[in-house]
Amino acid sequence: MKGSRTKGTTTIEVGANGVALITLIHPPVNSLSSDVLNSLRDSYEQALRRDDVKAIVITGAKGKFSGGADISSFEKVQEGTVNEPTPDFKFSEVLGDTLEAAKKPSVAAIDGLALGGGLEVAMACHARISTPTARLGLPELQLGLIPGFGGTQRLPRLVGIAKALEMMLTSKTVNGEEAHDLGLVDAVVSPNELVSAACQWALDILECRRPWIASLYKTEKLDSLGEAREIFKFARAQAQKQAPNLIHPIVCIDVVEHGIVSGPRAGLYKEFVSFQDLVRSYISKSLVHIFFSQRGTTKVPGITDLGLVPRQVKKVAVLGGGLMGSGIATALILSNYPVILKEVNDQFMQAGIGRVRANLQSRVKKGKMTQDKFEKTLSLLKGSLDYESFIDVDMVIEAVIENVSLKQQIFSDLEKYCPPHCILASNTSTIDLNLIGKQTKSQDRIIGAHFFSPAHVMPLLEIVRTKQTSPQVIVDLMDVGKKIKKTPIVVGNCTGFAVNRMFFPYTQAAILLVEHGVDLYLIDRVITEFGMPMGPFRLADLVGFGVAIATGMQFVENFAERTYKSLLLPLMQEDKRGGETTRKGFYLYDDRRKAKQDPELRKYIEKARSVSGVAVDPKLARLSEEDIVEMIFFPVVNEACRVFAEGIAVKAADLDIASVMGMGFPPYRGGIMFWADSFGSKYIYSRLEEWSKTYGEFFEPCAFLAERSAKGAPLSSPVEHAKSRL
Ligand SMILES: C[C@H](O)CC(=O)SCCNC(=O)CCNC(=O)[C@H](O)C(C)(C)COP(=O)(O)OP(=O)(O)OC[C@H]1O[C@@H](n2cnc3c(N)ncnc32)[C@H](O)[C@@H]1OP(=O)(O)O
């Protein structure tokens, strides 16, 4: 069973002071499985029955209150194994009728996490005591859900409507101190005082020295109805603007509002009904899939199951202080790794250090970092112009321009100057690692560490292994990845690896459509409305045509048969239109980087069209929005299938994560393979085949897709005989 190694339980221990301590136990995060919930109800009823119990404290084992409802139980509902609302989802009644309405007071003692259902249990208690570092929140919306154990009603009554909506809509947690300021917890104490302070608080409630509060009926934090309506109106407008494709944030606001207007019991009922609908929605199914897939990336068969312990990486060198190198250095020093930044001359080195400084300064400006922490963090970075200081580094990450012979030279040098255990990583985004390491004898410690720009912000780290890379080196890099808060996906070696192989047809398909008559700006709009952060043309402007063309060349060389050859980008570049940095690309940019459409583009498109020998296709010129989405993304699915079939990715779910975190594919569509399976392999195959007949090999469905389509099989089911590169 995913995410829940045991079914969990609770224990009850009655002290001489007459307080029953109920402990939630379900490693690793004390999630609330059916067994935990049933056991909690039984322990609670026992405490209420026993004459020697005067008051109750609920806490979680091993310094964690609870990570919330057991998410794996949602999967069963989503797979259709469970149809009716299960007792789990009716637990809201138990919290209201048994805990909150009890004749004995209860206090939650919170350390570590109190998330989702965990916080909802705590809010049904009559008071909450937490440690300063505890994290409290209702992150259910991240899963396409709303709180289902009364959180939509109790949180607004404890912290006010606006703050409650903010916490739920952003899924952000607050720490114990902040929770105290908000009124969500009643006192903050150190972890070793937690249980005794909570027991004392419960006795104080009993003896009327502290208030006995049922959160559900608290009113003093609630705004007047008129003010509340304004808050709801504003929240709806914001939610609509930020996530127009998502319905559950609006449902959440509706449910909170219903409770304010019609009373908390009516609110609880609406919460229950809405939760039942949402848990079965495609969006929740997709987001739950993403939740488990993201955690699944750290489990790589044949590598993470070998019992290898990651070696400690104490010092890292980064080669190249450009955009990528400085971003990588920033990510490393932010996680306390001392870093040497090597450049070829002083001017470049100072520029690189300047970029790192600017990255950190922007955190200070946003209030995410103190000036003192800024100084300390920056002091971890040292510039260097030679390899002398590489004598004691444990890992090098090369991030110079995409030039094969330059990289080959660098890796030969690294072999000479770095200690023999040192991990030699390259941040190349496309070049085959075997080529890069060709002139060395260190193939076992050469690995790809492909970051995404800006490297200190983007969450994905594509770890590329060749057939020679040792499992130890992979485990070491995965560990560094985790420490710098990246989600690693381990992939095999090939041109473009997983993410860029999927990106390539995305841009290519867009160019093909434009040359055949589809409006360029319409494509960007449709793709943005689909949920991508920006359309393919706006993205090309952001990346810059220089990089786009250089990367494209790698694909032309390696996958010529399925490359759509167009001169659109080179023609524009010839005219000094190189993307955002030149202020002109597919869009025109003003001082504030605001993009404006440019009617002049027509002349480049017409020229590119005539060079390609392509005529406007009236059918494509009238393409529906659905068709635009399919013609752009099915070629991406096709490439993802190849990547999967070749064993470059071991699990389809890794490609889902790669697409979401590397390409910006909307997580609420579950990732590229998950989304593709919602159409079915037969449909995708038939569409690609139809287009390939008219528009050429670019669309030709791959053998894997043909095979899955013939069997009517899902694209994400495991590949049995893949010639795995892992
Ligand atoms: C009715 C209610 O209103 C509905 C709900 O409560 S919905 C649930 C709300 N709770 C959440 O969304 C929290 C989800 N969990 C998290 O954000 C993070 O796991 C965490 C912050 C709790 C811990 O993070 P971290 O320490 O990095 O550990 P992480 O690797 O994520 O999780 C450890 C393991 O616990 C599992 N897990 C975490 N939370 C879980 C949950 N709520 N249910 C089931 N499994 C869970 C993970 O799948 C993972 O399993 P694995 O080891 O087999 O891969």
From TrEMBL:
One Pfam family of this chain: 3HCDH
CDD domains in alphabetical order: crotonase-like
Catalytic reactions on record: a 4-saturated-(3S)-3-hydroxyacyl-CoA = a (3E)-enoyl-CoA + H2O; a (3Z)-enoyl-CoA = a 4-saturated (2E)-enoyl-CoA; a (3S)-3-hydroxyacyl-CoA = a (2E)-enoyl-CoA + H2O; (3S)-3-hydroxybutanoyl-CoA = (3R)-3-hydroxybutanoyl-CoA
Limits of the 3-hydroxyacyl-CoA dehydrogenase C-terminal domain: 496-589
Keywords from the UniProt entry: Fatty acid metabolism, Isomerase, Lipid metabolism, Lyase, Multifunctional enzyme, NAD, Oxidoreductase, Peroxisome
Domain 3-hydroxyacyl-CoA dehydrogenase NAD binding residues, every copy: 315-493
Subcellular location: Peroxisome
Record flagged with keyword Lyase: yes
InterPro entries per the UniProt record, alphabetical: 3-OHacyl-CoA_DH_CS (IPR006180), 3-OHacyl-CoA_DH_NAD-bd (IPR006176), 3HC_DH_C (IPR006108), 6-PGluconate_DH-like_C_sf (IPR008927), ClpP/crotonase-like_dom_sf (IPR029045), Enoyl-CoA_hyd/isom_CS (IPR018376), Enoyl-CoA_hydra/iso (IPR001753), NAD(P)-bd_dom_sf (IPR036291)
A molecular function GO annotation: 3-hydroxybutyryl-CoA epimerase activity
Annotated pathway: Lipid metabolism; fatty acid beta-oxidation
Cellular component GO terms held in the UniProt record: peroxisome
Any Gene Ontology biological process: fatty acid beta-oxidation
Record bears the keyword Transmembrane: no
Family from the record: In the central section; belongs to the 3-hydroxyacyl-CoA dehydrogenase family. Belongs to the enoyl-CoA hydratase/isomerase family.
Protein name: 3-hydroxyacyl-CoA dehydrogenase
Lineage: Eukaryota, Viridiplantae, Streptophyta, Embryophyta, Tracheophyta
